[in-house]
Amino acid sequence: MQPEKPVHRLSKIETRQAMRGVVMEGMAAQTMESLTTGVFLVSAALQLGANNLQVGLVGAIPFIGNLMQIPGIFLHDHCSDRRRTVVRLCYAG
Fold first, then answer.
1. Which residues, 6+ apart, have CB-to-CB distance to 89 below 8 Å?
2. 2 — alpha (psi -120 to 50), left (phi > 0) or beta?
3. Per-residue pLDDT for the chain (93 aa), expressed as one digit of tens each?
């Protein structure tokens, strides 16, 4: 399958705006990741009185989420109606 050729080229202003948007999105994603994983998450759990098992489970949540990408790939490739699949999985969760 041949990749599609771009319809038009972006101007320098459009390119700078797009690059600025990508940088801002990257900053927001990194901030979200820093605050919801690692040291911040564990210290918040400890401040709430979590025991060792609970701290371990909270620390493992990001890795469990990464493992869930494997069945997601299977569903993406084998389900014809992706929108219906996503809605069903949201209700199941």
1. 75
2. beta
3. 677 777 778 889 999 999 999 999 999 999 888 887 778 888 888 999 999 999 988 888 878 888 888 888 888 888 888 888 888 888 886
C-alpha distances (whole Å) from 39 to each of 46, 54, 57, 58 are 10, 14, 14, 11
The DSSP secondary-structure symbol of 40 reads H
User: What is the residue type of 63?
Assistant: F
| 66: Cα within 13 Å, side-chain hemisphere | 6
Global pTM value = 0.49
Give me 36's structure tokens: 């919801």
Residue type at position 53: L
